Amino acid sequence: MSDAASTPTDFIRDIVAADVASGKHPVPKTRFPPEPNGYLHIGHSKSICLNFGIAKEFGGTCNLRMDDTNPAKEDVEYVESIIADVKWLISGWADHCLGFKAPGATPGAQRVEGKPDFFLGSVAPGEEGRPFHASDYFVQIYAYAVELVRRGKAYVDDLTPEETDRYRQEGRPSPYRDRPIAESLDLLERMRGGEFPDGTRTLRAKIDMTSPNMWLRDPVLYRIRHAEHHNTGGQWCIYPMYDFAHVLSDYLEGITHSICTLEFEVHRPLYDWILESLDLPRALPHQYEFARLNLNYTVMSKRKLLQLVNEGKVSGWDDPRMPTISGLRRRGVTPEALRAFAYNVGITKYDGVTDVAVLEHAIRTDLNKRAERRLAVLRPLKVVITNLPAEHREDLEAVNNPEDETAGTRKLAFGRELFIERDDFAEVPPPKFFRLKPGGEVRLKYAYIVKCEEVIKDASGQVVELRCTADLESKTGGANSNRKVKGTIHWVHAGSSVDAEVRLYDRLFTEEDPEAKGDFKACLNPHSLETVQAKLEGSLAGVKEGRWQFERLGYFAVDRESAPDRLVLNRTISLKDTWAKEAKK
RNA sequence: UGCCUCGUGGUGUAACGGUAGCACAAGUGACUCUGAAUCACUUUGUCAAGGUUCGAAUCCUUGCGAGGCAGCCA
Question: Could you report the predicted ipTM of this complex, rounded to two decimals?
């Protein structure tokens, strides 16, 4: 069973624990560094839970940092969504570990052991702050680039992108590799000054053109891009590459454990090389890699999610069918459920595929405990209780949450005309059908046992109404309520019911691995969204937000498009349905 | 092809040279005024072959398989 209260264990936490115990890093500092080029998804939530979890467990902090070194792809819309999603996900759990910088702050120059240094710390918890940005360090990163050139460890290269590529594959050094330091320094300054067009020159690390690790074959550190940056505007026309900017950002912020996904494993020697080559005075960060989250029936790459959004396959990044944090939130999933899920999948270096059933289980477990129960009918079928007068009206008592006694009870209206679920009536019942059938009996939850006396159909043969009689002795809680019938069904009193649009979601893809056959959009599930006009019990009139379990159906949450005159609900997830499995047999 | 990493039931993960455990999924039963929840039980596993050892999922060798990298993306 998922138990988010117990402390998880994994190989990264083992390392952190050892570093704390040995005094190497008494206070660990992590960071969550998304690129603001899309919305965060559930894979990011695994990383957020890891990084903030470590900070929380070891008394450290976790900086939220925008890894924004590519102006072409990034946007403030994404920055704002990332902040909102991270705050939501860690709320009530690791808020106090969120590392923000003081508004407007940039790294301060200092001297450590006689050496020049830069450092930018985070504000105290609760103080006003903003996320860190790699782009806030462009000045310092550039200074480090100059330093590398001075040390003879980097040079300006005039090769074209294509030539750079070919030389690297051939393990051949660029003819500009050994140009004089002074010349590189001059060229770098002029690159910064805007003298050269995009792609004409780069700054390259001078490492080893014959290394078996491609990332050590003189990787590009800076490229020329005459482009507006969402944070620095038009200040720069050269931008540092990920490898250069990321490791230095880690160092500037005093990060101790820089945790990323497996594909960066081959970058680690470069990460370490940059740190060592600069002869930095403070404790150095180390990079550790874990396997990213893969879920079946889901695509996870931001590029593909962006396609779904841009091509209108979904209504937006927060479409409740999207595996984005904002989509899951809108669907009605809680941060607690997402955290429990992250805990359950664990942290390893094995690149496997997690069954979405594990996610669904975490969502159900969480909602089962917290969601109050209500009665609602998704596909209404009219029922008339013929032995009750038209004006009959009574209030029944219903339990709000059998899993939580403190949730109390509520009043449920009952009368002559009701709605029941179409699926709960069968004219020709299949084997083991416990629900209503002609001449059969069923209990209406919290009310009476009723017997189906007559089936009324329209001209086309469609069942439009059931006429039933109630056993007035069988009222729930009454002296003679003990009579057993095989089935109990939910219902809604017609006169006091509330109309609502209910959106029923199913998985977005029909294939376990949507990418297996090339085009992931070819296996989009045409039935991933079904909208029904439902009837809800009267207590739900006027609700503006909230989550409930509709008994025997699933968990539902008010959608953000809901309005006073038009209630809209999303089905977060259905209840487990063993009858559906039985019916298939 | 080169380099890096990883192989434990159907899936995800524990076991740190000493009884292969947990969760999900699946199945059976109990209970049930939610065919839910809960409870009990069951099925299924160390990639292969050698070696070291009293003892190997764990250490070594080889093989096989999977993933990643080889952008002036991150």
Answer: 0.96
